[in-house]
Design a protein that fits this description.
alpha+beta, four-stranded antiparallel sheet, about 350 residues
């Protein structure tokens, strides 16, 4: 494709979301054709190939539609969607360069401030350039430049020159992508980047100095126990209803679908519990304590990790749903998201 384009690996998930909107009746076919145009409709009607290039304009129109209908017009919806795309790339393990991002967390200071600053700056720059290769493989236009921030000597800024061809919503998704990637290597859990937009380019600027970026938890905290919190109440009636849903293959609690079959706990889940090396408690909606309610925000199902007197939301309901009933998938995500939080399971290495 000669015009500005994006790889199908990114577009495919957006197409699936738009099709779901149509099938659920949230937007009618006539309006959909008007909003997406000929190229956008062609994307909906054909099979999206991950390695094929597709028009960036079609992608932008779909992003705008999703933000308007699903995100109620809020920019944060699209930023979060970009972050979700980054998580899928990380979890998929298709980019070998992501393995090198762990080096930032593994750096051992020498004790000499200037030497450490020089080493950390060089390592940080390497992290950015590695992630940039992923960005460059997904778009056939736009030039990215990593340059020093003239206002803050211990920061960089990432300039993306796109001649105004990148739709605004796509720029927002890129911001979410970069912030999620930074969480993968960072010791911090706050966004590293904010965006300044211009007609022909946009700039991602750092929210903190490089040395602050390194000052996260240098070691890992061991998880004492895990709370698997089901989106169902306790009691015989609730259990009977859940079993009926399993038999009829109706929507139920995604976490229960992973851990239990019709007759009880799955054998592979028993093995998983034993292999993780920490106690796992099964908790129902009406059995949650204040700590669990605060950690989950009552968005269930969820898995909460406990260490000493602290608690963290380890897996939210969206991540659990992506396991699609697989115990092995759940186990892998437990380890992955624990590492992101600076936590560790004793037997999960």
């Amino acid at each position: 494709m000669s015009g500005p384009a994006i790889k199908g690996a990114v577009l495919r998930g957006i197409v699936e979301q738009v099709i779901q909107l149509r099938d659920e009746g949230k937007i009618d076919a006539t309006q959909l054709e008007f909003r997406l145009g000929r190229e956008g409709m062609a994307c909906l009607e054909g099979k999206i190939q991950p390695a094929t290039w597709y028009p960036i304009e079609a992608y932008g129109r779909m992003r705008e539609l999703l933000q308007e209908v699903e995100g109620r017009g809020q920019d944060q919806y699209t930023i979060d969607a970009g972050a979700a795309s980054a998580r899928r790339l990380i979890e998929g393990g298709h980019y070998a360069q992501l393995d090198y991002l762990k080096r930032w967390r593994e750096y051992v200071p020498t004790g000499h401030l200037e030497i450490d600053h020089e080493n950390q700056t060089a390592l940080f720059r390497q992290q950015i350039l590695l992630v940039r290769t992923i960005h460059d493989s997904l778009f056939n236009f736009a030039t990215q430049k990593l340059v020093p921030d003239t206002e803050f000597p211990r920061r960089f800024q990432l300039e993306t020159w796109d001649d105004g061809m990148m739709p605004r919503v796509c720029r927002l998704a890129v911001l979410g992508f970069w912030n999620e990637m930074s969480l993968h290597w960072s010791g911090q859990h706050q966004p590293l980047w904010y965006m300044v937009q211009h007609p022909d380019h946009y700039v991602l600027r750092m929210t903190r100095d490089i040395v602050e970026e390194r000052e996260g938890p240098l070691g890992e905290r061991w998880i004492d126990r895990l709370s698997f919190i089901f989106d169902a109440n306790s009691g015989f009636g609730a259990a009977l209803l859940d079993s009926t849903r399993k038999i009829l293959r109706l929507n139920g609690c995604d976490l229960c679908t992973i851990t239990h079959g019709i007759t009880g706990e799955k054998k592979e889940m028993v093995s998983c519990r034993e292999s993780l090396g920490v106690p796992i408690e099964y908790v129902h909606r009406d059995e949650m304590d204040g700590v669990m309610i605060e950690a989950t925000g009552n968005r269930l199902p969820a898995i909460v990790a406990h260490s000493s007197s602290s608690a963290w939301l380890l897996l939210d309901r969206d991540v659990i749903a992506r396991c699609k009933g697989s115990v092995s998938d759940l186990r892998g995500r437990l380890t992955f998201y624990a590492a992101k939080l600076g936590l560790a399971l004793p037997n999960a290495r």
